[in-house]
Design a protein that fits this description.
Radius of gyration of chain B: 19 Å
Strand order of the largest sheet of chain A: 1-2-5
Radius of gyration of chain A: 19 Å
Number of helices of chain A: 3
Number of domains of chain A: 2
Oligomer: heterodimer
Number of helices of chain B: 3
Order of helices and strands of chain B: HHEEEEEH
Strand content of chain B: 25-35%
Largest sheet of chain A: 3 strands, antiparallel
Order of helices and strands of chain A: HHEEEEEH
CATH architecture of the largest domain in chain A: Irregular
Shape of chain A: elongated
CATH superfamily of the largest domain in chain A: IHF-like DNA-binding proteins
CATH class of the largest domain in chain A: Few Secondary Structures
Strand order of the largest sheet of chain B: 1-2-5
Helix content of chain A: 40-55%
Shape of chain B: elongated
Distance between the termini of chain A: 20 Å
């Protein structure tokens, strides 16, 4: 399922809502989650899962093509842990 | 959205209420629908790809032998399906550059 299909399904379930609003609504939700992660925070959606960020140390990587060493600075990376209910639903 | 506060459904429906102008009840209901529809797609075996955000990828794991860490007894771990999230480059960059 891609973003536009998700928007379509929510629109189908809410015939009174203008399609434009549904589009914005879906965008708003993912923007709020992204902004929270960028601010170093956490997002917890019971039953669905939790979004957080994890620290990665600085390291010396290599350009895979040339083998040349490159410095990769410390950074945070996004992480998602599926909720209990979600994990169970995937395995029924 | 301070660093210490964890964002929840209530916060998401609050943002929807403010930005889209839906009633609080409708905002809460539609946020729940979005999550439910994503969850339904995944439990039906579909990956969910949200452009600009990331992809929820299902992976099938084969059966393997595990061990009860307390007793040391070997137990078979049944094949199962797990969910991983691969953030889009846009989201990765945004978080990496945030510091």
């Amino acid at each position: 399922m891609i973003r536009s299909e998700l928007v379509q399904r929510v629109a189908d379930a809410n015939p009174d809502l203008p399609a434009k609003d549904v589009e914005r609504l879906v965008a708003t939700i993912f923007e709020a989650i992204s902004a929270q992660l960028a601010a170093g925070g956490r997002v917890e959606l019971r039953g669905f899962g939790a979004f957080s960020t994890r620290a990665r140390d600085a390291r010396t990587g290599r350009n895979p093509r040339t083998g040349e060493p490159v410095d990769v600075s410390a950074k945070r990376v996004p992480y998602f842990k599926p909720g209990k209910e979600m994990r169970e639903r995937l395995n029924v | 959205m301070s660093e210490t506060h964890t964002l929840t459904r209530a916060d998401l429906s609050d943002v929807v209420h403010r930005e889209i102008g839906l009633s609080r009840a409708d905002s809460a209901a539609t946020v729940e629908q979005v999550l439910t529809m994503m969850c339904d797609a995944m439990s039906g075996g579909q990956n969910v790809k949200i452009s600009g955000f990331g992809t929820f990828v299902l992976r099938d794991k084969g059966e393997r032998v595990g061990r009860n860490p307390k007793t040391g007894i070997e137990v078979p771990i049944a094949p199962r399906r797990v969910l991983t999230f691969r953030a889009s480059n846009m989201l990765r960059d945004r978080i990496a550059e945030a510091d």
